[in-house]
Each structure stands twice: as C-alpha cells, then as structure tokens.
Amino acid sequence: MLLTISTTHKPASDLGFLLMKNPENVHEVSLAFGKATVFFPEADETKCTAALMLDIDPVQLVRGKGRHSGAEDQYVNDRPYAASSLLSVALARMFGTTLSGRSKHRQELAETPIELEAKISPLPVRGNKQIVTQLFEPLGYEVKTSSIALDPIHPDWGDSHYVTLVIRGKHKIADLLNHLYVLVPVLDANKHYYIDDAEIEKLLRKGTGWLEQHPHKDLIAKRYLRFRSLSRAALRRLEDSVEPEPAEEIAKNNEAEEVIEKPIRLNEQRMLSVMAELERSGASSVLDLGCGEGKLLRRLIQHSQFQKILGVEVSPQILAIASDKLKFERMADRQKARIELIQGSLVYRDDRLKGFDAATVIEVIEHMDAERLSAFSDALFGHAQPNIIIMTTPNREFNTLFEGMIEGTMRHSDHRFEWTRQEFKIYADSCCKNYGYSVDFFPIGEVHADHGAPTQMAVFKKIGKSEA
Amino acid sequence: MIEKKEISIPEFSLVLLIGASGTGKSSFAAKHFKPTEVVSSDTARGWVSDDETDQSVTGDAFDLVHAVIEKRLKNRKLTVVDATNVQPNARKSLVALARKWHCLPVGIVFQLPEKLAIERNKQRPDRQFGPGPVKRQMLDLKRSLRGLKREGIRARHILKSVEEIDAVTITRAKLWNDKREECGPFDIIGDVHGCADELETLLTKLGYAVTWKDGEPDITAPEGRKAVFVGDLVDRGPRSPDVLRIAKHMVEKDIALAVVGNHDDKLKRYLDGRNVKQTHGLAETIEQLDDENDEFRQNMSEWLDGLISHYVLDDGKLVVAHAGLKEEMQGRASGAIRSFCMYGETTGETDEYGLPVRYNWAAEYSGRAKVVYGHTPVPEAQWTNGTICIDTGCVFGGKLTALQYPEMELVEVPAEQTYYEPVKPLDVATTADDKDAGKLNIKHVLGKQAIETRDMGIVMVREDESAAALEVMSRFAADPRWLVHLPPTMSPPATSEKEGWLERPEEAFAYYREQGINTVVIEKKHMGSRALITLARDSEVAARRFDVDDGSKGIIVSRTGRRFFPDAEMEKAILDRLDMAMQKAGLWEKLDADWVLWDAEIMPWNLKASGLVNQQYAPVGAAAVAGLSETTALLEAAKQRGVDIADLHAKSSQRLDNAAGYRTAYNHYVGNTASIDDIEIAPFHLLASGDAVHSDKDHLWHMDHAHRLAAADSDLIVATPFHQVDLANDKQVSDAIQWWKNITANGGEGMVVKPLQFVVHGKKGLVQPAIKCRGKEYLRIIYGPDYDMPTNLERLRKRGLGQKRRMALREFALGIEGLHRFVENAPFSHVHQCVFGVLAMESEPVDPRL
Q1: Is the pLDDT of residue A192 over 50?
Q2: Whole-angstrom Cα distance, residue A390 to residue B261?
Q3: Which partner from A49, A185, B1, B572 sits 20 to 30 angstroms from A420, CA to CA?
Q4: How confident is the model at residue B784 (pLDDT cuts 50, 70, 90)?
C-alpha cells in the first residue's frame, strides 16, 4: 500500500525538509505490524514526490488475531495491501514532527499553505463512493478518484471497493497529514484495533481546527470510533433492516433537522401491539420465543402481571447480549425470580417450554426455512401448547411501498420468506386445524388500503381455554 | 447360636435399614454392601455441617440423602438407606422415591433390646446424647412394625439379636424380567388371539416342527432358536385353548418365552372366578373352554398367573412387552410397569370409535434397546425410533407376523379369514399417532453429550459445542430427517521440511507407514465443494425411509448439512440425472437397494463459494495488484535516480508476481454456474445403500462404484482419477509424488491419500481416514499470496495438527455411527445425535487454514 505526497512549490525539493527526510536516502521504521519505508521517486526543483510504503507482515497479522471466531475468520485479507488505520499509525511514526506542525529547517514554509498533492492506492471505501468527495471537498481539496476493477479477467464482476484517490490543494503540510490521518480510517470501516478513551483523545487532537467545522463531523466521529465486535456483527443479522443502514447516514443526517418529531418506528409499534394483547389476555406466564436481545423481555419485566417470563434464543452470543441488556447482574432478586433466559431452538420439542399462558413469536418465523415450519408448529402448538400465541411477521404486500426496496428482494438478508396476508392465513389456519387453536389477525403500523400494514400479527387461542 | 440366616433381595431394590441408633445398622451396611451403595444420613450431616451428629442440619442432610437416592435409582442402582427410618413419615418419602423409579422397597429391621443400644451409644464418643433419643426411637419402631406392609414395604426382614444379625448373608436375586443372558436368536410372534391355524403355519414357516398327539401339541424348535410371544394369545379367535396349549408347551420345553397381554390377564381373572365383563372376545374363549375339563382350566390359570410383564433380552439390547415399554421402565418392576406393559398409557380421551386414545410412547422413544410389541393392530409392522409393533391384526383378517431377531426379518402368514370385525378399520389404527414419529426433543442434543460409537468408543460433545451447533442446526441446516450423516473434516500432512514447500505427499505416506499401513489409495482432489447426495428410488421410498413428506426423492447437502442447491428445480434435475445414471449403470439392482448415499465433490467451487471469491479473494487480488504495481513502478523510478533501493525493488517485483499468481490460483476455481451443464459431480464414497453401511468395503470398491456411475452419465458425473500405492515400493511412491506434482502444476488442488480400507484401527487407535496434500499454488489462496517467501514460510511451518486430527477422527467415528444407527432403525434421535455431534465438533476453534 502506498501513499505519495508531491509538491510543485518551488523549490520542490524543500518537501524533504518539511518531512524531515533526505530525498536521496531510504528511510525505514519498524512497526508492530511490519515496516514503513519512505523514499523519493522524484526530487528536483520543479516537482518532488515522497512515497510512503507499508510492508505489513501477513503472518504476524493473522497470528495476532483472536482465534475465537473460527472458520469464518478472514485468514487471507486485504490488510497487507490496502490503506487503513495502519497507514495512520505509520504516518504518526514516520512524520510525527511534521504532523505537529513543526520543521527544523523550514518552519516558515511549514506554516504556509503550498500546492500539495496526495495519492493513495488502493484506498478501500465502504458504502457509497461519493463519500470520498464529501469528506475531502469541504476541506478545500480537488478530489479525483479512479476505480479499480475486481478482476480484469471478469469484467462482469465490476469494480472493487477500492479506489485510487488523488487530492490536490493549497494546504499546510501538517494539515494534509492530519486530514489523512483521520479520514483514511473513516473510509475503511474495518479498523484493525479496538477503540478506547485514548482513541477519542487522539481523534480530537488530530482534528483540531478543522473537524469542528466539517459538515460531516458526526459521521467522521462515529465511523472513526466504530466498535465492531463479533457479537455486534451477529446481532445485526437479526435487526430489522427496514430502517436505513449506516452507509446512508449522511442523507439521514441532512434531514435530521427538518424532522422535528421522530415518528414512532415500526418496531416500537410492534412492541406496543404485542404488549397490549398480552395485557388484555390476562396471561401471567409468558414465553418469548426468539427473544433476540430482549426488547420484549425488558417491557415484560416492568409489569407485575407477568410473574413468569422465559426468553428463548438459539444464538449463544445474542443470548449473552440479552443478558447484558437486561442487566441481569444488577437485577433485584424479586425481578430475577420472575425471568429466565435459556438457549433453545424453535424446531425442537422442549419440555421446558410447557405450561405457559402465552407465547410470543415476534418477527421470528421468517428467519426459518419453510421446510422447518412443520417442526416449529409441532414444537410450539403441539408440544409446548401455550393457551395464547402471538405471532408477527412482515406483510410482503407492503414491500412495494418501501422506497428503495428492489422488486423481489426481502427486507432483511436473512429472511427466508416474506408472506402475503393470504399466505400467513393459510399457515395459521393449518396450525389451528392440526392443533386445536383459533386465530385472529391484526395489522401493525400504518394500514394501506390495498397493501395492508407493514407487519401482520396473528393471535392464536387454544380452543377450550377461556382467557385467563 | 444361629448358623445362617439368608436374606434374598432383588438386585434392584431400595433397602431401608430400620432401627434405633446403636443397633448396628452402619456396620451391617458396611459388611454386606459396597460403600457407594450405602446412603447414610450421618454422612450427609457431616457433609453439610462437618459434624455427623449435628441434629440441627437434619433437613438439609435429608435433602441430600433423597437427591442421592433419586440419582441412583434413576440409574438402576441398588441403594441402601442407612438412617433410623423408624418414623412412618421418613419411610413414606423413601417408598415414594422407590415407586417413582419402579424399584422394590425392602425393609431390614434391627429390633435389638433397648439396653444394648443405649449401652453401645455410651461407648461411642460422638453419641453422647443420653438414653432419651434411643428410647423414643425404640417406641417409634415398635409402633411402626405392623404398618410396614401397608406403607408398601412388602419385603421385610426382622433381626432380633446380635447373633441373628451376625448370621445374615445377603443374596441378590435377578428380577424376573431380566433375561439379558438370553441372546437368541428369537422368533418374536405377534398377537395370536386364538388363531391357532395361522400360528401353526407361522411356526412351520419359521422352521419349527409342529405335531399333535392326543390333543396335546409337540413342538421342536430349529437349532438354538426360541419363540417369544408378545401376549394376547386368547380371545376373539376360533381356537384360544389350543393357542394356550402351544404356548405353555413351548415355554415349559424352554423353546419359548411369553409375556402377558391384557386379554391373557383378563382370562386369568375370569378363571379365578372374578367378575369380568365378557366383552372384546372373551365370551368366545369362555365358550371354547366349556369343552375343556377343570384340570385344564386350573393349569392354565396358574400358568397365566406366572406370566411376566416384559423381558429384557440379549444383554439389554432387546425388550419384549405386550403394549411396549418406555425406556425408564425397562428392566424394573412395579404395578405401574405391569399396567403399562399390558395396556400402554392412555390420554384419558376416546376417539371417534369410542376407543381410548393412546399416548404414543414410541414417538418419543430414544432408549438403547429395541422394543418389540403388539397390542395395537397395525396394517404393516414398521420401525419407529427403534420400536416395532408386530400385531398385524390376524384375528381381524390381517396377518400373523413374526420378527426374527437379530436378523430383523419379518415373516408373515395371512389370516385364513376375518374371525372378528374390528371396531375401527385396521388402516386408520395408527394414523392418529403418526404425527409424533421423528420429532426431535432438545434434550437429546443440548448440553454435554456422550455418544457411544462402534469405531471409537464414547465421543464426548462439550456443552459449548452443542450450544454452537444448535444455532447452525436450527437456522441453517436442511430438514434433519434427511441428515443421517455428515462427513469429517480432513487433515493435511505434517509440514514438509523441504525448502520452499509447506505441504508434500511424503509426510502423508510417512504417517500411514507409521500406523502400520502398507497400501494406500491416492485420489485426485477436485476443486469443488464437498456434498452428500441422498437419493431414493422414488418419493415413496424417501417418505418411508426418511419420514419426509415433501414429495422429493432425495437431497444434496453441504458438509455442514445445508442445502447445496437453494434452487429446488436445479436440485431435482440433478437428482433425476443421478437416478437415471444409477439405473443405467445397474447400480440399484447390483446394490439391491432402494436408496443410496453418495459422498462427492461438486464443481465448480464458486457454486457454493461465490461470496468468498467476490468478497475476499478477488478484493485481495485487486488490492494487491493495484498497490504493488504502483509501488514497484515508483521504486523503479527511485532506482533510476540513483537511490540505493535495488533490494526493495526486487522484493516488490516478487510480491507483484505472487499477487498475480494468487489471482491465477483462485481463478482456477471459478466457473459458470448458471445451468446444470456447468455442473460436475465427482462421487468418491458410496457410504450407504439399502440396509448396508459400506464402511466395510475398501476404497477400490468405492472407486469402482463411483466410476460405474460416472460412465453412465459422463456429462454430469466425473470419474475421479486414482491409484493404489504400495508404500514399500519406492517406484510406486515416487510415481505417486510425480502424479501429485503434475496435478498441482496444472493448477489442480492436490490429492487425497487414504488407507486402502475405509476404517482402520492402527497401533494408537483409529487411523485418519484421509489426508489431503494440497498444491503449492493452491496454498496461496489459503495462506496468502506471499506465503512461500522464505521469512513467511519458516514461521508458517509451526502449525499444530493435533487438534485438527483429533477432530477428524471424532467426526469420522460419529458420522459412520450415525449411518449404522439409521440403517438399524435406531430411534431417530440417536441418528440425529451423531450428526449433531459432527456439527458440534465443527464449532471447535481450529486454524481454518489446515
């Protein structure tokens, strides 16, 4: 991976003084992850270019990584080749003095904006490539990006997410380096180390004088500091992606001021509907199947009506998050006695799930392959047999009303199916017939005359059981 | 002086020592029982308080005592309760525990003179509580004695003196149902219901010689065989007395066993003069008995009275009971068990025919023993979870069925006529229960699991491994009913010491030599994805074998049990082609099978791994080439300018070449995936077919069958090139290495080395079933473009294979075990456990590059 800094300021060879590196020599420093080298491919009076080359040790990189994530870990990755936060580390080590605005022999020049050009290749850009321009242009650069093909043998594969970036403008050398120091990791969301308080300090220091005024400072801070843990990544799989993804945050931020009152989000409406139904049923023991990180459980525990609450989740990681979010450790004994979290599966019979008044299955069935539904119905309706079952799932008919949703796609990459109201009814009716339940359907969210509501809810009642 | 006092107790019983403090219970327990068999309240007091005499902790101590007893009884272990047990309440909870676990309670009462007990306590420094407690205990005991039987302690032994106590010897009696030493072979015969004609025909068909003389039968059995009657010999049919004669004769001649059926029991009660309703065919039997004399009736009453509820046979591997038997009741004794054996369990409801709705114990059965039973007429005898009902309704015009054990073959004789009209038609008899079959319960997979395999003994699955696998199995796997096997992971050879190489075949050969293996087979490793192809002859066979109902006749899954082809049409098209190839190759006939399981590689690789190519390999290639070409050019410029940078330039050029090599390497794996014409399948193991697991065949056999299949449809199916290599023959070994070099030089992935035999036990136990030798260029994809630069390679050599190899063996043993269990009609949960175990092992954090 390569960064070049050039100037056409005269005499151009002063760049060596500004960077405190003799253009005729090769300069090397060792870093934890490899070696950084600076050399000058050209250095005359009219143009001078310094090149910073990073030689990242791929073996060390893999060794250093935690091995907890198992086979899905990316053991061959682009870190040795692409610009990343490792570049920032190298910049700080190689040009520390320059970054701080000082120069031993050319202090005056260091404080003067001069014609500078920086080129990075390859620079990874997650999300919309517009963001590169949006980040550098407000700082007074002319920005040029050229895309890099994924594989020239396969033109149909299109471009990779790397670009060659050239920025040009009249700047103090220290400003250019600071901009790069902060913005390169922002573009590559894949930070190589976890953030802590020191990291925040670092950002504030390097951003002094320009970050405060930057129109996208929130985005910069957020992405620079992004904490990406395994559990978080796992968690996101189950999150509703109807809401915008982080990549579109710029647009959202722009509108933020205009939208004074935050509309009640779909998820919130779902929870309200389900809670209302549970309260009305008089149920005192509730089973939350596929409880995720415990959104519903946190509401249930607030109501003394619910004396026995069992959250069931199949993923051990998500279960751990749910436990954290419920603050199990600090929960009062009385509350703790009412709630339990267990790992369980919706497609196995489970004796622990028997004997509950009500069960909720909120936005869960669509994450299950259709061929497993019969096992699910058997385990829930046939084996656990709660008196009341509240089930919600997306209404596919409504998808056409979502802006930006491509025809034929689903709301979440993990959805195995999304049902029309009729399809949901067919499934629900067969459960009623096979297991002796009755069912009523309710819309959740704004109801459209033709397409119905975004979410559909079914409330099943075991025949022969009156409401508790 | 008393010479000898023998006390006989059932070998599975709960023995209550009853007596005041100081009457010698603990010494008695220590003398006659193993220390682990004795649960003592004093010891429990010590555990919770460090003081065996601390009465203030009695509550906690007894909680412990009960908990230990409960676990022991659950595990069918004789248990002795060393406490005073003089109060009815104390005994009541113990008897309840015994009842719960179908264990016989036995009381041994120590009724010594009060003075003696008080004196003894005085001698013991830790029993200085004075005479008060002993006096109270003596009084309680006296009051209790008469009540013991009423409390459920039928077997009582009272010891009244020190001499008598000293004279005791204890013998342990086997339970009547325990015939584990009888290993067959058996001919287990379904409900006869007075159909003597059919019974005679069936016996003859089974090889028994049946003759009658003066109205009495004389029957001889084929060498070593024994018949087992599942009960309901009588009622409804035309010749109930003769059936009784035959059965009694055979049992007394020790060529048959018989368990009691509900009709047999009812007849016995009638013969005893009890008032029973003459319904369900009893009236017919009574009429037939009118022709018999009193002696016959008396004999039969006695004989029927001696019939046992169930038998545990063949080392615990076979259980015969009239209405079947749950696992937790097998080999135990109680009224509840006798009742279950005769009637089964009912839900308390009745169906539309007015018959009681039966609780379907077989649907949830997951015991080790096969259970053979009758009672409920079914149209065809069929295995469910390792259980089979062989009452095929002969008296209702069906047939009389025998199951030959251990052959597991059914022998049938059709009814000569319908002797009795069934209340509900035969063919609907079971449909109500069928929905429970094949349903999995989470308790069979969650938590720590110990799975017994025939090739490796017990394989433990850790709790965290099961937890990880549960998610994968629940959210991503195909319907588990299809998953009867998963393949093991495959280890590479030890690292090569040759300069510039990480992996070579020499080390693989060396491994097998060390294991004492002389002949190996080398097979080309295809550049595809592992797949398991399950194919039945038609959807009916699939439905019967796999209990699936989606109308498909097979499935193709990945090595982690996920559907290989998300596109159902594509999968169906491929299965149809494979079926045609099986037909054309004559393999269905040759194997005499109605289903097969092929282990195969499916190409192209990006069919499954396009995400990996587009999101990992190609981006790495793009970044590497883009960065390094720019860098190399600038280094060149600096070099031209006279900067001393030649070394860096050379290195950068080399890395640019490596990056290009990396791109070439992954591109070998990329092909079109749009249509069936782009797909190739290379089968290499024919794992199972019909009722056979082919792990007993060598790899030449497997290759032969795979090649036959390939020849029948060479457009779709690839014949895997292979050679047999004699490891003692240097020429053959060097040829094999050259073969590998040729494959990998052309961009091929490498080869797989296998011992000639499928399953091999070497000096240190099970031997790796296969070792993969990957090519130098292919490894670039795995270890990175620059992996073979000297400084990198040197460090990469330090890779540990131990864990990978242990995993491979355990997965191999589990996978093969799953197949065996499947073809042996084991409970489905037992098959699933093995497959689940393989998946659980895969969650182990092992270097993914191995």
Answers
A1: no
A2: 46
A3: B572
A4: confident
Integer Cα distance of B483 and B822 in angstroms = 10
Fold of A266-462: Rossmann fold (3.40.50)
Q: Looking at the structure, do residues B461 and B577 belong to the same domain, yes or no?
A: no
- How far apart are alpha carbons B810 and B458 in whole angstroms? 9
Q: What's the CA gap between B209 and B203, in Å, rounded? A: 7
Judge if B511 and B535 occupy the same domain. no
CB B519 within 8 A of CB B727: yes
pLDDT digits (tens, 9 = 90+) for A238-262: 232 223 233 333 333 333 323 333 3
CATH 3.30.1610.20 domain extents, chain A:
2-228
Cα(B258)–Cα(B338) distance, integer angstroms: 14
Tell me how far apart the alpha carbons of residues B159 and B15 are, in angstroms, rounded to a whole number: 14
For residues B384 and B455, membership in a common domain is answered with no
- CB spacing of B620 vs A71 below 8 angstroms: no
Q: Give the separation between CA B32 and CA B838, rounded to whole angstroms.
A: 45
Q: Answer yes or no: do B848 and A82 touch at CB < 8 A.
A: no
Q: Which residue from B753, B790, B809, B720 is spatially nearest to B506, judged by alpha carbons?
A: B753
Average pLDDT over residues A327-343: 85
What are the residues facing B45 on neighbouring strands?
Answer: none
Residues 6 or more apart whose Cβ sits within 8 Å of residue B6: B168, B169, B170, B171
Segment holding A217, helix H or strand E: helix A217-224
Neighbouring C-alpha atoms within 13 Å toward the C-beta of B729: 9
pTM given for the model: 0.73
The dihedrals phi and psi of B105, each to the nearest 5 degrees, come to -80, 140
Q: Residue A376: enclosing H or E segment and its boundaries?
A: helix A373-377
Q: Do A39 and B643 touch (CB under 8 A)?
A: yes
Most A CBs within 10 Å: which of B474, B654, B780, as the mutation test of the A interface? Answer: B474
d(CA B7, CA B157): 7
Whether B360 and B212 map to the same domain: the answer is yes
Tokens of B762: 């070497």
- The rounded distance, in Å, linking the Cα atoms of A323 and B255 is 63
B569 lies in a domain? Answer: yes
Angle made by CA atoms A148, A149, A153, in degrees to the nearest 5: 150
Residue B783 lies in a domain: no
CA angle B347, B349, B352 (to 5 degrees): 130
Within a domain: B673: no
CA–CA separation, B776 and B779 (whole Å):
5
B330 vs A263 pLDDT, higher one: B330
CATH 2.102.10.10 applies to domain A2-228: no
Secondary structure (3-state) at B658: helix
The answer to whether residues B217 and B290 belong to one domain is: yes
Q: Is A150 on the interface with B (CB under 8 A)?
A: yes
CA distance A310 to A289: 8
CA A328 – CA A244 distance, rounded (Å): 31
Does B394 have pLDDT greater than 50? yes
Domain span including residue B169 = 5-173
Residues B521, B547: one domain?
Answer: no
Residues B663, B729, single domain; the answer is no
Nearest to B550 by CA among A371, A168, A225: A371
Domain boundary among the residues B143, B173, B203 is at: B173
Residues of chain A with CATH 3.40.50.150: 266-462
Residues of B in contact with A434 (CB under 8 A): 435
- Give chain B positions within 8 Å (CB) of A90: none
> What pLDDT does B842 receive?
86
Amino acid letter, residue A323:
S
Q: Does A189 touch chain B (CB under 8 A)?
A: no
User: Do A47 and A12 meet the contact criterion of CB atoms below 8 Å apart?
Assistant: yes
Q: Based on the structure, what is the number of domains in chain B?
A: 6
Distance (Å, rounded) from C-alpha B379 to C-alpha B224?
A: 31
Give me the pLDDT at residue B850, please.
Answer: 83
